[in-house]
Design brief:
Elements lengths: L1 E4 L7 H17 L7 E5 L25 H13 L1 E3 L14 E2 L6 E2 L2 E6 L25
Parallel strand pairs: 1-2
Antiparallel strand pairs: 2-6, 3-6, 4-5
């Protein structure tokens, strides 16, 4: 299991390249017979277009993708990984994890990612709205 924090949309291409290179190394170092879970704030929005990203995204995504989203989707497609947040049908308030500070809109930017073949072992991925601490992120 890996926990990570990806560079934001405003970060340099070099920082993003370095992050994905390190993540690629970590994923490749995990034996194929082991279950793999990558949890993190990927600072990315993926789309709802599960037809194009078959196996990576499922029918229950949220919103539009950004440039960081394309990078994450390509990485997942190459590594045969799936974003479990898009698998389960539930309301958006149980999927979205971050509130944009200016618009106040909620987006899905924190993901639980696993190998596509291990999806059967995931029972539910959802955002938890804490009642004791305010944050612009919800736990997944």
């Amino acid at each position: 299991m890996f926990s990570c924090y990806a560079p934001t949309l405003e970060a340099s291409k070099e920082k993003k390249d370095q992050f994905y290179k390190q993540l690629n190394t970590a994923v490749n170092a995990t034996p194929s017979e082991h279950q793999l879970f990558v949890l993190g704030d990927f600072n990315t929005r993926v789309c709802v277009d599960h037809d194009i990203w078959r196996g990576v995204l499922w029918r229950n995504g949220v919103g539009k993708q950004n440039l960081n989203g394309i990078r994450l989707l390509v990485f997942c497609a190459v590594q045969k990984l799936a974003a479990t947040n898009t698998v389960f049908q539930q309301s958006n308030k149980l999927k979205t994890t971050w509130m944009h500070p200016r618009s106040g809109h909620w987006h899905l930017i924190d993901y639980v990612i696993t190998r596509q073949r291990n999806l059967r072992n995931v029972r539910l991925t959802r955002a938890i709205r804490a009642t004791t601490v305010w944050s612009d992120h919800h736990l997944v």
